[in-house]
Amino acid sequence: MPDGFLGTRGSLMIDVVFVAMFLVLPVLYWSIYTARVGRHYPFHKRLQLTLGIVLLVAVSAFELEMRLFGWQHRAELSPYWRAGRWNDVVDGSLAVHLACAIPTFFIWVAVIVRAVRTFPRPAAPNTHSGSHRMWGWMAAIGMTLTATTGWVFYWLAFVASPI
Ligand code: HEM
Fold first, then answer.
1. Which of 4, 61, 112, 155 could disulfide-link 15, Cβ–Cβ 3.0 to 4.6 Å?
2. 160 lines ligand 1 (CB under 6 A)
3. CA–CA gap between residue 16 and residue 25 (Å, rounded)
4. How close is the Cα of 52 to the center of ligand 1, in Å?
5. Whose CA is nearest to atom 32 of ligand 1?
6. Which residues pair with 11 in a beta bridge?
7. Strands (E), 1-133
8. pLDDT lower than 70: segments of the chain
9. Among 103, 105, 99, 14, which Cα is nearest to 62's?
10. In DSSP terms, which residues pair with 26 in a beta bridge?
């Protein structure tokens, strides 16, 4: 896999996902704002479906690259890295990141599938609103934690250098 464009040890795909999360979070909160304050529900729906598809494509490509090429060789220069599995700070931060990312993935799928099935077309509030608001916020908080823990992992593995 080619090196990334950020000048760190990250690969191209790792850098793409790292930067993409800086765009995903503002769009996500803007989308929630359009539902909460603007009440532009069809626009909120379109933004969320677009985000969902973009994230699914990016995460699938990322997963494929990780399975095929791995990332460990890129972290070897990190002072937080030790050879072996689950025995250093880099692996610990990855475990925290995965503990956020995996539940968040399933919450997103459930929120989108239930919203598309249950809200009327064009999208508008109904009896599903209460549940959607609660799980929608869970999904948003989960994505925020996934992004922040991902950035921490990125720094520990691909940026930090021995002094
Ligand atoms: C993962 C995707 C989604 C997330 C994270 C999300 C998040 C949210 C959140 C947090 C709210 C509540 C805002 C508030 O505090 O008032 C909300 C409201 C709403 N969302 Fe979503 N949403 C998602 C997908 C969708 C989809 C696909 C639809 C339509 C099919 C939709 C339709 C609505 C509607 C109609 C409301 C207004 C509910 C009400 O206040 O009665 N959402 N969404």
1. 4
2. no
3. 15
4. 13
5. 45
6. 3
7. none
8. none
9. 14
10. none
